[in-house]
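Attaching the record inline, Q. Sequence:
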Amino acid sequence: MGVAMLHAGFISFSSCIPSFSSGGLSRRLSSLSNDPIREWILSEGKANEITRISPVGGGCINLASRYDTDAGSFFVKTNRPRPIYRDRCGTFQAATVTATTTLNHWSIEPSMFEGEALGLNAMYETRTVRVPKPFKVGPLPTGGSYIIMEFIEFGASRSNRSVLGRKLAEMHKTGKSENGFGFHVDNTIGSTPQINTWTSDWVEFYAEHRLGYQLKLARQQYGDSTIYERGLRLAKNIRPLFEGVAIEPCLLHGDLWSGNITSDRNGEPVILDPACYYGHCEAEFGMSWCAGFGGSFYNAYFEVMPKQPGFEKRRELYLLYHYLNHYNLFGSGYRSSAMSIIDDYLLMLKA
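Structure, as predicted:
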């Protein structure tokens, strides 16, 4: 799933938005008050003229556009209000979603793009793997929100996986947190809220805010008490898998699959649409089942971040979070994969 398809999914347009210029000072000034994207580009973006707006094709939640100006190009994503999560007390925004939430399609408020911008900026500041630099996030006057970021011209070929492995390891090595495991805000994994409450213990964080949260969503959405009960039993018994492992809170992209990996025109890896938090570095490989990393990726990664004892035993534990999320987002096609992992670990751990 990954955010290129969902979290930052793009909607294709049947025709291009007409290009335009400033067209006179009075018209330009009157339009700025109703268009915060143009206002930012023509002020803080240091452009005098927007020469063209072109739609960018892709997935299914957000609209994506390229704004060409005399000061360079910008990448802009926008969204519109949708139905939101509800609990017994009524409706509330994604930023305050808790594990008592019933999973439905939810309203994507500025908090979603704020989380994305904070994650992009955190990765950008490590000066390791390339990410688009975020510039501005805000609400749209007609509802919904927007994010403006650096426009990166993509290359024709996929990124070199060994270079990606090395740069990702450098990001994990550089990006550390003194607050423990979590992130500055809750964000989203696909369109599912991702709870990032700071926690000092990784096993507790992963059991409660990753596995436990998804299991509760599955029970609430599908009435699936079987996966909930077995999964919760696993979550309470995973600590032996981490014996002898020193776990540091590393900055993670959080949703690293093939749709969120590309390269720039120089062939350097670029990663997009994050669901960032600080966690165990191995959790970054949770989407490896559809990322196409390969041996060269892992070899390069482990040269920088050495493989930890018990790595192989924990691999599927980190896949489980994403299989559960896919189950919650896309339905029963992913249930058997999640259930199989749960049952295998219960047998292994004699739990």
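The CA atoms of residues 211 and 321 lie 6 Å apart. The longest helix spans residues 202-222.

More tomorrow.
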